[in-house]
Write a structure and sequence with these properties.
Elements (H helix, E strand, L loop, with lengths): L12 H5 L26 H7 L8 H13 L6 H10 L29 E9 L4 E4 L5 E4 L1 H4 L10 H4 L3 H5 L5 E11 L7 E6 L2 H4 L13 E9 L3 E5 L6 E5 L14 E10 L4 E5 L2 H6 L18 E10 L2 E6 L3 E6 L21 E10 L4 E5 L2 H4 L13 E11 L3 E6 L6 E6 L11 H4 L5 E10 L4 E5 L20 E10 L2 E5 L5 E5 L20 E10 L2 E5 L2 H5 L16 E10 L2 E5 L5 E5 L11 H4 L5 E10 L4 E5 L6 H4 L5 E10 L2 E8 L1 E7 L8 H10 L5 E11 L2 E5 L2 H5 L16 E10 L2 E5 L5 E5 H4 L7 H4 L5 E10 L4 E5 L2 H4 L5 H21 L15 E10 L2 E5 L7 E5 H4 L9 E10 L4 E5 L2 H12 L1 H14 L5 E9 L3 E6 L5 E6 L18 E8 L10 E4 H4 L5 H6 L10 E9 L3 E6 L3 E6 L21 E9 L2 H7 ...
Parallel strand pairs: 3-5, 8-10, 18-20, 33-35, 43-45, 48-50, 53-55, 58-60, 63-65, 73-75
Antiparallel strand pairs: 1-2, 1-4, 1-14, 2-3, 4-5, 6-7, 6-9, 7-8, 9-10, 11-12, 11-14, 12-13, 14-15, 16-17, 16-19, 17-18, 19-20, 21-22, 21-24, 22-23, 24-25, 26-27, 26-29, 27-28, 29-30, 31-32, 31-34, 32-33, 34-35, 36-37, 36-39, 37-38, 39-40, 41-42, 41-44, 42-43, 44-45, 46-47, 46-49, 47-48, ...
Length: 1902
Amino acid sequence: MAPPKSQSKKVSKPALRNVDKGKSKDKISIEDEVPDFPRGGGSSLSREELDEVRGEVDAEFEAEERLLKKRKKQKRTSTSSTTQDDDLGSLFGGGINGKLPRFPNRITLKNICPGMKLWGVVSEVNEKDIVVSLPGGLRGLVRPSEALPPFLHHQPKLLETDTNFLSSVYHVGQLVSCIVLHLDDDKKESGKRKIWLSLRLALLHKNLTLDVIQEGMILSAYVKSMEDHGYIIHFGLPSFSGFMPKESENVEVKIRSGQLVQGVVKSIDRTRKVVYLSSDPDAVSKCVTKDLKGISIDLLVPGMMVNASVRSILENGIMLSFLTYFTGTADMFNLQQTFPSSNWKVDYPQNKKVNARILFIDPSTRAVGLTLNPHLVHNKAPPTLIKVGDIFDQSKVIRIDRGLGLLLEIPSSPVPTPAYVNVSDVADKEVKKLEKNFKEGKLVRARVLGFRHLEGLATGVLKTSAFEGSVFTHSDVRPGMVVKAKVIAVDSFGAIVQFSSGVKALCPLRHMSEFEIVKPRKKFQVGAELVFRILGCKSKRITVTHKKTLVKSKLEILGSYTDATEGLTTHGWITKIENHGCFVRFYNGVQGFAPRSELGLDPGCEISSMYHIEQVVKCRVTSSNPASRRINLSFTTTPSSNELVKPGIVVSGVVERVTPHGIVLDVTAQGHFKGSISPQHLADHCGHAELMKSALRPGYEFDQLLVLDVEGSNLVLSAKHSLVASAQQLPLDVNQVHLNSVLHGYICNIIESGIFIRYLGRLTGFSPRNRATDDRRSSLSEVYQIGQSVRTNVVDVNSETSRITVSLKQSLCSSTDASFIQEYFLVEEKIAKLQLVDSGGSDLRWVEQFNLGSTVKGKVHEIKEFGVVVSFQKYDDVFGFISHYQLSGISVETGSSICTAVLDVSKIERLVDLSLKPAFVNKSKKETTNNQAQKKRKREALGELEVNQTVNAIVEIVKENYLVVSLPSYNNTLGYASRADYNTQNLPHKSVANGESVIATVMALPSPSTSGRLLLLLKSISEASETSSSKRAKRKSSYNVGSLVQAEITEIRPLELRLKFGSSFHGRVHITEVSDDNYAEAPLSNFRFGQSLTARIISKFNMSESVKRGYQWELCIKPSTLAGSGEIEPVKNLSYSTGQLVSGFVYKVDNEWAWLTISRDVKAQIYILDSSSEPNELDEFQKRFSVGRAFSGYVLSCNKEKKLVRLIPHPLLVDPERPACQRDGLTDHSSESMAFHIREGSVLGGRISKILPGVGGLLVQIDPHLYGKVHFTELGDPGVADPLSGYHEGQFVKCKVLEITHSGKGTVHIDLSLRSISDRTQKQELSALNDTVDFAVLMEKIEDLQPNTMVQAYVKNVTPKGCFVMLSRKVDAKVLLSNLSDRYVENPEKEFPVGKLVIGKVVSVEPLSKRVEVTLRTSNAVGASKSDKDALNNLTVGDVISGRVKRVEPYGLFITVDHTNMVGLCHVSEISDNHVDNIDSIHKAGDRVRAKILKVDKERHRISLGMKNSYFNDATSGEIDTKLSSGDALSIGIESTPSPERSSQGRENLDGESVDGKDLFLAEVESRASIPPLEVPLDDTENLDMGDVINQDSGDATNLDTSDDKNKKHAAKKAKRLREQEIIAAEERLLEKDIPRDEDEFEKLVRSSPNSSFVWIKYMAFVLSLADVEKARSIAERALRTINVREELEKLNVWVAYFNLENEYGNPPEEAVAKVFQRALQYCDPKKVHLALLGMYERTEQHKLTDELLNKMVKKFKHSCKVWLRRVQWLLKQSQDGIQSVVNRALLSLPPHKHINFITQTAILEFKCGVPDRGRSLFEKMLREYPKRTDLWSVYLDQEIRLGDADVIRALFERAITLSLPPKKMKFLFKKYLEYEKTLGDDERMEAVKRKAMEYVESSLA
């Protein structure tokens, strides 16, 4: 029974060298990324490393080896050595040699080798590696490249960008299977080896194939990507992939790409090579590997669970057999029991069945290790319940292994943990017999030395020394600890030292000495024990120093920035020296900076001459900022005198001199300092500061000055009373500032966007403009000035950026005491004294004679308009003043003596304010007569007053800066109150009148500090910050709705007055509550700020509303309301009726609407198009409706819920037939409800919404949701050649409503006109002109048309047979080709473009069928039909006529007969006596010809002609006529139709010319029938009823042919018959292309061609041109119902047209299209429907919808190459990133046979609209796989040639022609190369290519 035992320290060096050297060849050279020195014993692994210690060879063998060394050193026989090799616990071949081993298989540092597969548990995940705990306590390292899945290897920057990537994929405690890559010998310590592992599944699953995989098998895999329903997984092998559905995923675990997962094989799709897994944890943990026939050891994977049976028991483990063919062993620490006792063998009888997991596999020796550990069998790592270094006093001995060690039970919580103590760790002295010293069940004190994470086994120590020592593990390390350590390795970088506990540390080279050294000192010998001080510990890397000064330092340790308190003295060492100072390092990485001025250098001395790098220095912390990690240092340990004077202390000083920019002082403080005060800092009052400066003289002493800042030896001072008094509260650092606190400060700068406020030092706050004043309209520079004292309210503090945001609003910062006025009187006294000294006048004793409130006698000196001036006998330079208010009606005369009471004394002006009021004078007289009694009474009166008491006061005197008031309730005691505050001293003061009553709070009772005055604080100043006592004193408000109040205007806004009344109540007067006349313009212009007025309360808000609004009361100042009884009626529900006239004021205006307020609760809106009908006024809509403007309008509709009314400026045209409910209570603004205020004849304002294509006219918006159509003929006055010119979308127009029609579905169709003349005027002119001269006009109705009427018209469309013109919006006419012009028209489409203005005459009118025919010919235009009849009658068979070839067709010539308008047809068989193959070669259009009349068909108006020579030579023409009497089937009619009736049946449409001048019939015969939707114009189809005639004619033709050519060959007849059939089919198709002009014609057409999507779509387009969207939708629905289900393509065309319709007119378009799309999916191929919708989105540039649709498509049709290419093309068009990820996804999804096509097309797209380099890389990737595919080379070359970089192209050609391809392919490449060089015209290059081609030929022949 040999438990694992650490190797003894006495292991000899040869034993350590006993490593298999042959295996070094297998090492894979990988750069070492491990730390420069080993991690110490902070984890079990590092402790095991430390315990190479006792080194991982089999424990029992080592025990035997020790005994052998002691007893039989000389006996080393070959037998014993063989036994040792066998029993080393090294790996055996699974019992192959037939001999049972003594010990189980063990993995040690000696026998581990590359290729071994191990099971491990992740113990650490670092940025650069993963640490894995292996069996036997070994420790392995995994580089990131070996942990990443293969599909992430192409992202080398992944780890750089995402440092936490490894930790997101792997976690501590995760069980992993790994394979040994190679082993490195540790250079720092001999005998140490690093085990480098790989987690790559490609190595672990090396021989795994799809054939081997079976259902129920457990497999590990990487998550490759997350999909909607699960995860695509990768097994590390390219031959097959996997999928894991989300249903089986553990919902608690968040899975990401690259993560390693385990799953049970549920099913295998061998065709698609996909394995389906389930990751259910329970299923994974319980699944056992089944016996497979012929399974090899390569297929065994660590962690695999097997059914095993006990084969035999070994000395310290068991042997098991599993999977039929395999044998494995489990050692004592991998048994089922956590605490196996001494009789553990009893539990494992032979053949016992157990579940086990594979722990390791060595393929070279076929050795397998197993574990029965219950945690591992359940696929979970054992719990880690203890930490290294923990001490357990109550550890119980479970088992004693003789000569080896002890198994302990450590009482961890919640379950105990096993621990093993090696015999060498039991005691400090050697223990020979463990069983004597320890008994099972004994309790011992143990300390945890390490931990094996995989086995869940702790390593313990019982040595007494282990409980001593300051450092046992890394967690015990503290910066600054002094420790003893032994040097164990010395290198050029430093020394590695080891503490007594085994923890290692590094002493860097620079810390081996006080000075900078190049190599380690001699005292650092391996084994030497030295004293060190710990510098720091980071990531288990401990750094120590041996610098003597640091080790012996008694000063405090500076180990963090928070420890750096000001004045701290400590030792540090210099790390860097620069010109401006030194950088000093302390413990734990803390760094500080000592500026040059603090280094104690002599003037002119260099830093490097005094200090050097690595020198230990004693320094003092002068300041620190832990938040920004900054410490300022000084090398002078005693602070200088200027450091003793810091900002915030109060000093005294004497004025030395006064300069224009400030006052210089000698400061009385510790040391000698100069100080300066800027003029603004002499007083808080701006006016006093100037007076003070002018009065100051050298020698004046300031007793209290605040140090604001220290600039070298100069102090910046302030004499402001507010700052001096609050010196203790002023902050110096941002950390001293607290949110919502109110601080005194001063303004240091004012900018446009805000104000900077300075406190102490350089600490500055900022008040943004919106927080600087209560009134935002004020200019900051007018309200504040630089240097002004202010109170600030802190609203935001950011310690990181050191930013303080404050508010200066008086409402937040008002004074809570009387310091402002108190300072005013104190400074006034100082200034008065200074002025006296300066002027040499008398002192201030005169003031004593004028006590406030006392009575004085004086003489009336002078009587002025504003009051009485009084002189005093004793003081010539002191005058008194009595205002008219204080005369109290008493008349005085100049020179008379009067007795007055003193109210106020101005010491600077030497002026006394007096009063003759009996209340003051009598009170003073009584006081003088009975002095003692009255003094007592005065004290009692004052005694009744308390600080913070609220009192009523009467204003007696209004001074510039303060008020003198009397308190009637307190014996008319005088009080003094400031009119302003710190922040408002530059604002205009509130106007106050003498005798006015004010409310104030007592702030200070009379005392010397208040200059004997009673100081008060006015309520208007302090109301924002009332004290608690003042709140108690405030009486409850008794204001109710209906009360009359006296209020003061505090703000005038555009639509309301803000008022203040009572003590602190705020209210509002809405603009509609100001005057009874609501139509008055600018009713608020008569009011001014501060004005007092009477108002009545009409409503009150609750507290939440009032906080939101900023006021609580609604007031009214209408005279009618003020005069009323005071009963306010509650606001009724919205009770406006439609058509009611209301008025209001504009409060907001935007591009579409103007918003008005018509009462305080009701709003109204006016639509831009309702505001006027004049375009120039609509353009200036926002100017016309400026904010505040009064407006009156008529109610169109009202919304009661929103309290919103819509107005129009003109009276409502209420339709009497409409129901009243619509007139009374419209609740919405829809078009239907609005339409009734628009009637025929109305003139409206409109906005052009859309210019319809061709002659569609305009779509004009006339209401928010209502549009009208302007017909092309209604765009302008008659006779305008281009009516659309001058119109653009968004333009405002004036339009007239012509007609309103309502459809059955409730939609409204409105016809508009933009013509400037009225209908009546037009009709008068029309009739007048037609009576007198033939002047053309536009005709409105068909009834007005008569033959020969001259008309104006616009060309609507052009066909091969003529054109259609528009006479008006309701009347169209047809113009035949022959009537287009007097001359020959070669290209009608070019000469008569759509929209052209033409003038013609009416030929015929059919009012019932609404058909009109017009001629544009000027000569003989009218009556042409009659002359043609005569001409036809004059022609007889046999006549020879001359004419001109009009058109050449394959079946014959059309010839115009001279001197007539008639056209005849000469059939191809009648052109020549010989057979004619090609008519074009004989005749061309315009040729003069002679022909003979063969037949005249008067009924059908057709002439048949012949041109054979035999006709002109043969005199018997009559026979010919008889021969041909059966008629020519292809005889053609006359172009000019004789009558309207016959025009509908005639064949005149066959002689129309083709649109483009080409042979139309031939083109029709050769073209395909399929027509793309909405691309080809649909022609007139009025002649479709001629089918019967055509069929009859074709029969006649056949008969003619048979009688004509009886003697011809049968083959020729057949060919001719086929030719005739082709011609007839072409004629029929031509007939079908006649354009219908109304719905009836379209209905005929769709009935005849019900399956033609083309016809249906044209019908939809026609209806849309009439702006009837609903009708178009219904036609689309009909088409979808009508078209046969088999005609899928035709249906799809209609669906696409439906998409376009809804996209244009849907409401909203997005939802409408989506609904149609979902329906289309049910009937058509989903992929085609998706692609059609995608095309529409792309065409209409709906980028967001395109992107969303593409994302859906690549998921739905992921096997479609076309869809993926559209996705790539879209990304490239949008210049978006992510192309590569899309390509990767596509290649995963597409079948392999589509890959080449997809990559090729993607590469071409990259070349065309993306990044060519990406295209090149795609081509290169394909050519690497398919180098012999010339098609790929050709496409690649074509793309490069298109780019045109000659060097790149030639290099590519050179590569291509060096390939070894078949001659045919090489010929192709050479030929392409030569053609390219020809295009460049480089002869030399061409010769070089030819030469290379010859060389290739020669080499291939050779």
